[in-house]
Amino acid sequence: MSTTFRNIVLATLLLTFVVVVLGAYVRLSDAGLGCPDWPGCYGHIIGVPDTDTELAHANTNFDRAVEAPKAWKEMIHRYFAGSLGLLIFVISIFLFRKDKYGQRHVFAGVLLASTLLFQAMLGMWTVTLQLKPLIVMGHLLGGFTLFNLIAWQFLRTTSWKPQIDLSLAKSLFNFGIVVMLILIGQIALGGWVSSNYAALACVDFPKCQQSWWPTMDFKDAFILWRGLGVDYEFGVLDHPARVAIHYVHRMGAVVATLAIVIYATRLWKYTDAQQLLKTNAMVIMGLLLLQVCLGISNVVFKLPLAVAVLHNGVALLLLFSIVVSVYMLISARTSH
Description:
Strand content: under 5%
Number of domains: 2
Structural class: mainly alpha
Low-confidence stretches: none
Mean pLDDT: 92
Number of strands: 0
Radius of gyration: 22 Å
Number of helices: 10
Oligomer: single chain
Largest sheet: none
Distance between the termini: 21 Å
């Protein structure tokens, strides 16, 4: 891959991280409906209403009164996301063209562009469907997916191909895929917690509601679709349903933590002198420890905004670190 392609992909990867973290900040600061329309904000493509005339017009023609701080948070996120979209389309064009080996990567280009378009639609539906939890969770997963698709293109520009035993590479690769899927499931649960405003349903740790098995409503907690026309800002579930969501996320964290620890240990133990994989295992363990501490801090310190946003960012980096290991393992297999 050319140096130009590599630099564009790296810049896009960094911008994607910023967009995902900004999205978390918007959601967690309750600014998801800061602009009740899309793609503009109270009919403004540039900026938000600020003059007396504009404010009067906006407050008359929209159901929500203008809250400038929330509106600006939402629009800044959209501006960053729009810039990201342009860079991703540039990458897709590069992938459609022949590289120095005479190959085209059409599938990768189409997948990247399609994911971007679907993510944009989810962003629109997040607003037009008034923070429907399924859409908000899907938007979170879409951002994580987009980041790792771009990351995969960046990894293709590297020479990270450790030489290890083929059967071991296959075994670790298969295990890595399982661990990656478990972590994605846990991230989805985290999105469900956030979109249903269940992060503080349990305010003590390690117990919940001073009990190892509090009163919970699982039946109502995981209804994915509740129809149209419902405003989900600040949640619609009763407390027992929110407790059930929070509790399941905690249990998922235990499963994910155990799976990641076993995987990282195997990467470290069985790859002998392959320093790349050993370093990767250390990064995975470090990010996992940080993520667990952040999750506990969210409960103990009553969901500080900075900690909650960082919890999202570290989850993305943790998934990325596992994707890196999977890439190196598949590269090791194909290099034999």
